[in-house]
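Predict structure. Chain length: 73.
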Amino acid sequence: MEQEELEQHMAHENPPFRLRLPRLITDKEIGLGDVIKRITYAMGMESCGGCERRAAALNRRIAFSPRDGRRRG
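Prediction complete.
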């Protein structure tokens, strides 16, 4: 399979595992890949194509939910 087909297949396979972390995430759902992307950006690292694919893959696997359990966004 090509990379794009593989990513589409994985997206339909399983929903992301959702975690609620009080005091960390306040108002909207955010994926693990986006968290890592923000941290590396804050450290001055530039993202590349591989970084974007990694972030998308991690976002499909793990998401942090709002404190009250409702999705917003």
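Summary: The two ends are 32 Å apart (CA to CA).
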